[in-house]
Amino acid sequence: MKMIHVFTPDRLVASVLAVPPLCRGSDFSLNEPENAKLIRHLESGGVRTLLYGGNANFYHIALSEYDTALSMIAQLSGHDTLVIPSAGPTFGLMMDQAKVLRRHRFPTAMILPQQGITTSPGVEAGIRRFVDAAGIPALLYIKSDGYIDVKQAAALARDGISSGIKYATVRADPAKDDYLHQLVEQVDRRLIISGIGEQPAIVHLRDFGLFGFTSGCVCIAPRLSVAMLEAIRRKEWESAERIRSIFKPLEDLRNAINPIRVLHEAVRLAGIADTGPLLPLLTNLEGDCHAEIRQTATALFAEGQG
User: Fold this and answer.
1) Which of 15, 158, 236, 247 could hold 49 in an S-S bridge, CB 3.0 to 4.6 Å?
2) Burial class (CB within 10 angstroms; exposed 0-12, middle 13-18, buried 19+) of 239
3) 137 near 162, Cβ under 8 Å?
4) Sign of the C-alpha dihedral, residues 115, 248, 263, 83?
5) How many CB atoms lie within 10 A of CB 26?
6) Average pLDDT value over all residues in the chain
7) Is there a contact between 147 and 112 (Cβ–Cβ < 8 Å)?
8) DSSP 3-state assignment of 18?
9) Domain ranges of the chain
C-alpha cells in the first residue's frame, strides 16, 4: 500500500489539480485499463494531483462500489501523484463513506456539496463529523452562494478540519466577487484553490492571490495547462492569457451543453481513453453534437502536443 504523502498547502497546489472522468465499461463496471490510460496521459504531461469529483460522477457512485473505486485510483496513480477522492453529497452517504476511507491512506477527501437542503451551520457540523469519522481533513468545495458562510468556512480552516477550499462559484466577472474577497481576508490564501478551470484562473491567482487551480480540460492537454500555471507563477500574463485562449473553445462548449457530459465525450473522442457510459443519473450526449466535440477536443489535444 502507498504511503500517505506529506500533506501541506504547498503540496496541494504543487500541480494543476486535474479533475478527470472515471472510465467505465458497457455494463457500468470500472474500466481499469482505460482509467490507467487517462492517468498516464495526465502524469506524462506533468500533472501530479488527481481529484476525483464531479467529472468522475462521484455524486452517484454506489457505496458498494466505493471501496473498489478508491483502491483502483490509488493503485493506478504514480508514486509521486497525490490522489484525492470525494465523498457525499448527502450526509448519510458521506458518513458511511468515511468508514471506507479509514481503511485507505488518502491524506484528504473532498466533500461534494449538497444543494438546496442545507444550512451553513449544518454544513460545518456535518463536515466536522465526517472528518472525525474518516480520520482525515476534508477539502471543502464551494460552488454556490448560500452553501457555507465565510465565517463557517474560516472556522473549518482555522481548526484544521479542512485541508483546503476548492472555490468554484461562477461569476459573470470573476474579478467582481465579494464572497471571495471576504474569504481571502479570513482564510490563508494558500488553502484556497481556483476551482473552475483555466478561464478564471488568471484573475483568481493574480488578483486574489490564490495559489493553484483545478481543471477538467487538462485531461485533453495537460502540458498546456501545466505551462499556464507556470506562466502565472512567473507573472508572464501574456503567455498565460494565450494559453487560456486555447482552452476557451472547449470550455465554451462545456458551458453551453453540460461540463461533465462534454468532458466525458471529449476525452474519448480525442482518443485519450474510452470513458464509456456515464453512470446514471447522468446520460451520455447523443451523436448530434459529437462532431463539434471531436473537432474541438482534437484541436486542443494537437495544441497540447506541439
Assistant:
1) 15
2) middle
3) yes
4) negative
5) 9
6) 96
7) no
8) strand
9) 9-305
Q: What is the 3-state secondary structure (H, E, C) of 134-191?
A: HCCCEEEEECCCCCCCHHHHHHHHHCCCEEEEEECCCCCCCCCCHHHHHHHHHCCHHH
> Rounded CA gap, 271 and 142, in Å?
32
- pLDDT of 5 reads 54
DSSP letter at 213 equals B
Task: Supply the pLDDT for residue 6.
Answer: 62
| Position 239, amino acid | S
Q: How far apart are CA 200 and CA 208, in angstroms?
A: 11
Which CATH superfamily does the domain covering 9-305 fall into?
A: Aldolase class I (3.20.20.70)
Low-confidence stretches of the chain (pLDDT < 50) are 1, 3
- Residue 172 burial class via C-beta count within 10 angstroms: exposed 0-12, middle 13-18, buried 19 and up: exposed
Residue 34 to residue 22: CA distance in whole angstroms: 9
Classified as helix, coil or strand, 212 is coil
Sequential DSSP letters for 244-279: HHHHHHHHHHHHHS-HHHHHHHHHHHTTS----PPP
Spatial distance between the Cα atoms of 39 and 37, rounded to a whole number of angstroms: 6
- The pTM assigned to this predicted structure is 0.97
User: Taking the chain, what is the end-to-end CA distance rounded to the nearest angstrom?
Assistant: 37
- The string of DSSP codes covering 40-90 is HHHHHTT--EEE-STTTTGGG--HHHHHHHHHHHHHHS-TT-EEE-EE-SS
pLDDT given for residue 1 in this prediction: 44
Cα 7 from Cα 225, distance rounded (Å): 23
Q: How far apart are CA 265 and CA 207, in angstroms?
A: 33
Cβ-count burial of 78 within 10 angstroms (0-12 exposed, 13-18 middle, 19+ buried)? middle
Q: Phi and psi at residue 58, in whole multiples of 5°?
A: -70, -10
